[in-house]
Each structure stands twice: as C-alpha cells, then as structure tokens.
Design brief:
148 residues; alpha+beta; elongated
C-alpha cells in the first residue's frame, strides 16, 4: 500500500458534459458539467476505487505514461493527472458512520425520546466505554457541496 497515487484521467468533452475515465482502472468512471466539477468528480471516483481495491486486496496497477496516452487522444479529449493522498482517504472512509439496527424495549425507547436522547451518540459512547476506547471522536455536521 502506498500513501500517494497519481493516475492519468481522460476528460472527454461533449455537448452534454464531460465524461471521465481512468485508462488504467477499468470501470472507474465519472461525469461532470464543468471543469471544476470534473476534477472534483475524478478525484472522488479515483479515491473510492483505490480505497476499495486496498480493502479487497486487489493489486493496484502502475499508472500509464501520460505522453503515451496523449498520443491517442481525440480533439475533444484531454489528459489530466489526478493525485490522491491515501491517508486522508482512509481516514474519511474509516470514520464514515454506518447504520446498525438495534432493539430496545418500547418503554426505554419512549423514555429516551422524552429525554431528547441522541440514541446513536449514546450507543457510540457506550460501545467505546465497553471496549476501553478513549480516543476523541470528531463530531461534525454534514455540509452540502455546491458547484458553480
């Protein structure tokens, strides 16, 4: 496992937007409406693909030579290098909240709601205490990303 990967992405420009593919990673595709969004979406797709490959122990290929790719491009295509820092990607995906169904007695559910208890947070705190985990958890609110 490496900490930094840089892969070439081909941006294909058409009237209806930009399609993105990674020639070294079949099936790693995305699309966008403008250049800023295309770079963001390419980074997102590559991050997810590399993380998934690491988790599945799938070998990650060496990236192709950009100059060789450039020779094969059509007039409506460009090649762009997309660089990924895997420590940040791993932290993002490993810290992702996962849903878990739990069962509690109806009376306890009612009492918790009346007391305005955050059940998810309470379960996290209890599990960490039970497992002897003392690390601080980042508490953050979801923010939507907008593109110009």
């Amino acid at each position: 496992m490496k900490d930094i990967y840089t892969f070439p992405a081909i941006f294909n420009y058409a009237d209806d937007g930009i399609s993105i593919k990674f020639p070294d990673l079949p099936g790693c595709l995305s699309c966008a409406d403008n250049n800023d969004e295309a770079v963001y979406m390419a980074t997102d797709a590559l991050s997810f693909r590399l993380f998934s490959d690491e988790q599945d122990n799938t070998p990650i290929p060496e990236p192709s030579d950009v100059l060789e790719i450039k020779k094969q491009l059509k007039s409506n295509q460009i090649v762009s290098l997309i660089r990924i820092s895997m420590p940040a990607v791993r932290a993002k995906f490993n810290d992702k909240a996962m849903s878990k169904t739990v069962t509690v007695p109806a009376w306890l559910l009612h009492e918790g709601k009346e007391a305005d208890i955050n059940f998810s947070q309470t379960l996290q705190d209890a599990l960490m205490q039970k497992l002897g985990i003392t690390r601080e958890i980042k508490r953050r609110k979801y923010k939507s990303k907008q593109y110009a």
